[in-house]
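Chains adopt folds. We examine one example:
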Amino acid sequence: MAAGFDPSGRLPDVFTNAGTSSFTTFLSRVAPEMLPGRRPLPPGMAADLAPHATTIVAIAAADGVVMAGDRRATMGNLIAQRDIEKVHPADAYSLVGIAGTAGIGIELMRLFQVELEHYEKIEGAMLSLDGKANRLASMIRGNLGAAMQGLAVVPLFAGFDLAAADPTKAGRIFSFDVTGGPYEETGYDAIGSGSLFAKSALKKRFRAGLTVQDATRLAVEALYDAADDDTATGGPDLTRRIYPVVMTATAEGTHRLTDAETATIAEGVVAGRMENPGG
């Protein structure tokens, strides 16, 4: 039974009084053991005991931002899951992708979604994009103890900035380090074990002012290049019809490409590489 509940079923005052707009702060008062970073861990490293998610890429476009992630999760030298989903909407205008310990990353992502929804309900307004990035940074910081034992989570955050003076520059990308430090990226970024190869591909092909459609194709190509050199990153699986998760955030909101749309792009990339393996 959560702290403060009585047998009559009456909610304690903390639930009915005016409180904080931060759901994680509220949870730390009512049930701190439910926060990922507050759970006690046994001594020693635990990195090889849980599946890890890998490569995520984000690209700023003229009319928004694109984020894509491969579908593979690994545990040591084994493929733990072939169709994990690492890219999700954070709210109506922003996206979050996770790399690192998969279970904690998914939990952190869901908690972040609730955090943004809770703020909007309490305050009656949406957090700014910078505010969302700062909230996510504080949540990552709360997981530092687990990260030091090998259970690190490093997300990639991107969204459409409704307050941007220039709509063609409203697509913004934020990366984070394991201590929660937020950093705004210019143009594109990638995280995860295949990020070195994905960013190398993006560095050669990225141009400012790309359309969302062109950025989507470029994101899938970058993931293909990452999978070509990183065993923990999964490329398009034509046999099982498993393709990257691709999402966009524009003035119209967030949108996930359908499996059919992603399949068309991925199969086009694979066909092109059959003729020119080097890209």
